[in-house]
Amino acid sequence: QANVTQSLRKRDKFKDVSVRVEDGIVTLSGNVELYIDKVEAEKKARKVPKVDGVRNHIEVTSSVHDEILRDQLSNKLRYDRIGHGIVFNSLTLNVENGVATVGGKVRDYPDRDSAIAIVETTPGVKDVVDEIDVAPTSINDDRLRIATARSVYGHSTLSRYALDPQAPIRIVVENGKVE
Known about the structure:
This protein has helices spanning 2-9, 35-47, 66-78, 109-120, 139-154; strands spanning 17-22, 25-32, 53-60, 90-96, 99-106, 127-134, 173-174, 177-178. By secondary structure, it is α/β, with parallel strands linked by helices. The mean pLDDT is 93.
């Protein structure tokens, strides 16, 4: 218990977190400002020698109305990774009682990780449910993605959407199938 407490006390953000240990199982309780802090506290506890498991009962204190939180998150996610092929990612978002569920399809793991990081570090998020599918790596799918994007955004009627940094027309290719 002392080792876990000492590990957490190195950071001021864990000052309201208490630690209880029984048979090698650590129970964390208390309050933190952000969801990512809750996750970090659990990771720190798991790294302590002789810890067999962690029960994370830490609560996130920051609170934002679900509708406002959904708008904040969707705006951040819409512009995430500009210049890194965001046109090939299509995400969905739902927020209920502070629990953000992120789904959809992305081209690669850095795109998924970036989206999850945005959600985890946004004030008001109490938990994160990751339902994002990562497309399998495929050179042929990459070629098809680029050809489709050039065709769509190069079309005279649709070319005005190419100027918008949020890439409003998303193109998902998986196993040769285009959405």
